[in-house]
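Write out the 3D structure for:
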Amino acid sequence: MSDIPYKQLFILVEGGDDVRFFGAVVKPLFEKYYDEVRILAISNWSHEEVRRLLFSISAMKSDYLIVRDIDTHPCVTAARDALRKPYSRLDPERIQIVRAEIESWYCAGISPQDAELGALKVVTCNDTGEVTKESFDAALFERRLRRAPAMIAMLERFDLATAARRNASFRYFLRKHLDLDPS
């Protein structure tokens, strides 16, 4: 029997777009350090269900990250504090706030020179940190692109160094949780 403990990481995200992004881009980076990385969409869970999950994770001596959009909060601190209200035991070091929304991280990894996706208004900007779900959808609509196929194409072309350079919250995530600076 091995003395090396089994290491698990649970990444708690909001919804399906987050699961897709974290599965394609982030999970492979963490798999170097963990035996198992699980990504769970918790937006439809009750506070009690999330509390029970966090208790179970703690009891298993596993790690977790909880990732949320900044939403309508004026700053990252306010978003983090709002998240901690229903979960008083939540470790603030295990919280990552995405500025503005996960769509901004998708766009960050696409080069403006990309033949198909580079012309999208949400990709041509120098800093994708203000890209919202609404601006993302409007840019796709303008180019007559369907959302899910466009997001999958973005993940297929995603470049880590480009994303770190073009989105401060993604760069912060890589540095803080993975000690990476790919830019």
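The mean pLDDT is 94.
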